[in-house]
Each structure stands twice: as C-alpha cells, then as structure tokens.
C-alpha cells in the first residue's frame, strides 16, 4: 500500500529514499544521544548561582501529530557568573525541549518561579551563557534517539531489500 510520495508501509519505494531515511534516522539518534550526554555532563558539573526571573509564561506550539496545540514553558532569567552578566531561557539543560499536552501541565513546570523573584540557577563552567533552572536531566533527547532509531532501522532494512533487488 503506497501513495504518491514514494513511501509505503514497508518503507520507501526507492533505494535513494531508503538511504535518505537511514541517514535522517542516524542523524536524529546521534543528535539526541549527544544532547543527552551534554545535559548529563552539565548537571554533574554545574555550580549554583542566584538568578532574577524576568519573564515566565507558556507558549503554544502547533502539533502536527495530534492536530491540536502543544505547550512549552518559557522563562527568562538574568544571572552573574565570574563577574560577567548573562541571561538564559533554559528550564532544563537539554537543547531539545519538551512540549506538554495541556497549558496547565506546562505551567506546572514553572510553579516555583515568579517574575521579579530570585531563584537558584545552575551554570556549567564550560558553558556559562546557558544556565538552567532545573538541575536534572530531561528525557526529551532520548525520545529523539528512539524515533531516530526507528527511522534508521526502517531505512536500513529498506536499503538492504532494495540493494538485493527485492
């Protein structure tokens, strides 16, 4: 069962499409793994600093999978590290941010933060411009790894099948 896009239930119909799917899957998995390792390192080596919360909110983002909207908690805070002033917008140390199904769920992530108040932020000494508020890892990069692996496996199997001439 295929459509005009060249994809079918078994994967792409062309060798080129299969290779592209494999490469995209490997790239997504690699980026997710890299981001997870980076955030783990940041959490392990971070130092605490005082930060002033300058903005707190929730942003609506469209979700193509559900047809509705997902929500992302947003925050901005100012802090100083080694006599240099910085601002950051990171809730977690991961670059890949998590979206939430409801606005209330996204807002609950920021329940401890109010505009104008002081909070503890965490700075990785090797990347002082990217402080974060929650000193724990996020599983969002692992989702990237999993989805990427699915694409890579389907692409890899399709490459093998197309190469054999099936």
Q: What's a quick, concise take on this entry?
A:
The protein has three helices and seven strands; from the N terminus they run ββαβββαββα.
What does this structure look like?
With 166 residues, this protein is α+β, with helices and mostly antiparallel strands. Helices cover 38% and strands 31% of the residues. The strands form 2 sheets. A 5-stranded antiparallel sheet has the order 5-4-3-6-7. A hairpin with a 6-residue loop joins strand 3 and strand 4. Helix 1 runs antiparallel to helix 3. The longest helix has 31 residues. The radius of gyration is 20 Å and the shape is elongated. The model has no long low-confidence stretch (mean pLDDT 84).
The backbone outline, from C-alpha atoms, is elongated
The helical percent reads: 25-40%
How much is the radius of gyration in Å?
20 Å
State the major sheet.
5 strands, antiparallel
Number of helices: 3
Structural class by sheet pairing and helices:
alpha+beta
Beta-strand share of residues? 25-35%
Mean pLDDT value: 84
**Poorly predicted runs of 5 or more residues:** none
End-to-end Cα distance, whole Å, is 16 Å
Keywords:
38% helix; two-stranded antiparallel ribbon; 166 residues; elongated; 31% strand; alpha+beta
Helices and strands in order:
Layout lengths: L6 E2 L2 E2 L2 H31 L1 E16 L6 E13 L2 E5 L14 H7 L8 E7 L2 E6 L7 H25 L2
Antiparallel strand pairs: 1-2, 3-4, 3-6, 4-5, 6-7
Helix pairs in contact: 1-3
């Amino acid at each position: 069962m295929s459509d005009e896009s060249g994809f079918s239930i078994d994967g792409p119909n062309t060798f080129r499409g299969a290779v592209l799917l494999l490469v995209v899957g490997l790239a997504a998995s690699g980026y997710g793994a890299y981001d997870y390792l980076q955030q783990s390192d940041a959490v392990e080596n971070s130092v605490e600093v005082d930060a002033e919360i300058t903005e707190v909110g929730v942003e609506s983002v469209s979700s193509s999978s559900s047809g509705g909207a997902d929500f992302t908690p947003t925050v901005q805070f100012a802090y100083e590290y080694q006599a240099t002033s910085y601002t950051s917008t990171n809730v977690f140390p991961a670059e890949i941010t998590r979206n939430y199904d409801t606005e209330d769920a996204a807002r609950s992530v920021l329940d401890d933060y109010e505009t104008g108040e002081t909070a503890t932020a965490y700075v990785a000494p090797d990347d002082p411009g990217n402080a974060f508020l929650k000193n724990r890892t996020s599983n969002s990069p692992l989702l990237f790894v999993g989805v990427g692996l699915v694409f890579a496996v389907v692409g890899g199997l399709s490459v093998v099948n197309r190469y054999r001439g099936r």
